Structure formats: C-alpha cells, structure tokens
Amino acid sequence: MNPMLSPLRYPGGKSKFAPLLLPWFQQHRQPVLFETFAGGASVSLLAVANGWCERAVLVERDPAVAAFWRCVLSPRGRFRLINNIRTLSDAVGRAQEGEGQGDDLSAATWCIARNRTSFGGKLGKAGTCGYARWTPARTIERIERIGLIASRLCIVEGDGIDALKALPPTAAAFIDPPYPGVGENLYRHALVDHSEILQSLPGRAAVGTWNDIPEIATAARAIGLAVKPFVLVSNRFNAPSREVLIGENLGWFSGNEIAKSRKKITPESFQLSLFGEAPRSERMAA
Ligand SMILES: C[S@@+](CC[C@H](N)C(=O)[O-])C[C@H]1O[C@@H](n2cnc3c(N)ncnc32)[C@H](O)[C@@H]1O
Fold first, then answer.
1. 229-244, pLDDT tens digit by residue?
2. Alpha carbons within 13 A on the beta-carbon side of 136
3. Where are the domains of the chain?
4. In the chain, fewer beta carbons within 10 Å around the N or the C end?
5. Measuring CA to CA, how many Å separate 195 from each of 21, 70, 119, 216, 254?
6. pLDDT score for 37
C-alpha cells in the first residue's frame, strides 16, 4: 500500500483511517468515489493512488479549500502554487492576511499557508503555531505526487449533501462531515443537516464517519443502518477520538477488533488502537 498523504493537515482528517476502507472498496467495486466533505481528501488520494477506484470526485464547500484543489489538480495551477510555496518568505504573515479571497492561486496559497501555520490546521480564527508545521519541501513533494494521479481526480465546489442526493449509480461515497458539536470550532463551514446525510445512505454504496454520540447512532439505527465504533489515535498530544462508521452491511469492518490487531493490517503511517498509544515511531506529525 502506498500511503498518499494529503498536503493539508486536517482536523479530523482520515489519512490514518483510510487504509481500513480497502475491504469496502473490494466489496462494492464502483469505479467512481465521491468524497463529499473533501477537506484534505485522504480517502480519495489513497483509493485512486492504489487503484481501489478509477476516479474520485472531491466535493468541498469552503472556497479556499476548493481553490487549493483546483490548483493542485491542474498542471499550470500546480506549477504556480508550488512556486509560491517554494518562494513564500513569510508564510505566517501571509496566512494572517485576509480570509482566502481572490483568484484561485491567491486563495490556494492562503489556504496552504494558513493550514500549515495555524493551530490544528484550522482555517478559521485559530492563532498561529508558527513554522513548526511549515515544511515546504514535504508539502511540495506531496503535491507533485498528487500530480501523478491528478487526471483521475476532480474538484467540485459545492454542497456535499446535494452531491450525495445526486450520486450516480456507478459511484460510491465516503462521507466525513464536520461532526456535530465539534465541527463548528474546526471548519469555516460546519453546519450540516446530519439526519439528511444519514437519510441519503440507505440503498447507496456509501459509508460515513461521525463522532460517537448517541444522537447520531440512534438516528442511524432507526433507519436500518449499521453503526460500528472505532478509536482513532491521532497523535501523542490528543486524546483518542471515539468515532463510528455508519453504513449498510458493515460486516467487512471489524472496528475495535481491527484496532487490536493493527500490526497485521496497517501501513507505517497508520495508527488505530483500541485505547493504547501508538508506538513512538508511528507518532510522527503528518
Ligand atoms: C471533517 S473535514 C473532512 C476531512 C477529510 N475527510 C480529510 O481526510 O482530510 C470536513 C470538510 O467538509 C467541509 N464542508 C463543510 N460543510 C460542507 C458542505 N455542506 N458540503 C461540502 N463540504 C463541506 C469542511 O469545509 C471541511 O473541509
């Protein structure tokens, strides 16, 4: 497995969870994946890079994040964005300016600068963490690697719920919405109707992740969806995040059992454990 890490640090990002979805891709075999709350698009990047699906459509409502992906996915945009990242003399200062308006290149440059110099990768008002996560060479390398698969990715700036409702029959969807009660502090667009999202799952090749709260699990079970818990350890500073996977027919996902046997199934960059800490070698900042 080739871990295709996103250049964006994303609060709640799924780069460490994405490898667990391989059996789901093997089961439904849809050629196209929709990642309807794209953010850093971890699942799409891994799935397309490893041939789990032919193409992926990223749907994102935040205009600066969408502009970032438009730049990364076009040869000219990528070239100019990489040049900006390479020559940005004051990333923290640049990130504090404005809100990511302007043309795509300006918005994309703001997005990556803000994302990699603010606490937790937040694009809203978060305060700066300085240059600790401003790693231009690594960011550029990731963008260049995405360039190799860019012809199989596209970005739609718009609403993820609308995209789910219009999901073509040949497509699967991975859904990672801003979590209720949490997302408001993390994303610039966070208010979504979770019951509407859940209602769109039955009858579709679609799974999603949520924070493990009774309201979501109860609403999902009420419409016949399966709910399986898992625990994600993001790094040594954060408490383990208790989440649930929701969808139809989740027999392929062993949740906590997988967590217990992570050595067998995880690539180096992936940390999922029941409650324990990941090994030190795995606790590297993404
Ligand atoms: C939890 S993050 C996704 C993280 C992603 N799974 C990853 O691995 O990086 C949720 C994303 O949904 C976006 N978003 C919020 N409301 C949306 C909407 N109505 N439609 C599409 N995207 C939305 C947010 O801007 C944010 O980027």
1. 988 776 555 667 889 9
2. 15
3. 18-72+149-285
4. N
5. 23, 30, 30, 8, 25
6. 97
- Give the nearest ligand 1 atom to 192 CA: 19
pTM of the shown model? 0.89
In CATH, the number for domain 18-72+149-285 is 3.40.50.150
- Of ligand 1's atoms, which has the minimum distance to the CA of residue 191? 16
In the structure encoding, which two tokens stand for residue 201, read together? 């799952």
Tokens (6 digits) for 164: 């789910």
Q: Which amino acid is at 184?
A: E
| Below-70 pLDDT ranges, the chain | 1-4, 234-239, 256-286
Residues recorded for the chain: 286
Tell me the pairing of strands 206-211 and 241-247.
antiparallel
CA-nearest residue, atom 3 of ligand 1: 39
Tell me the residue ranges of DSSP E strands in 121-223. 153-157, 171-175, 206-211
Q: Which pair of structure tokens corresponds to residue 59?
A: 């749907």
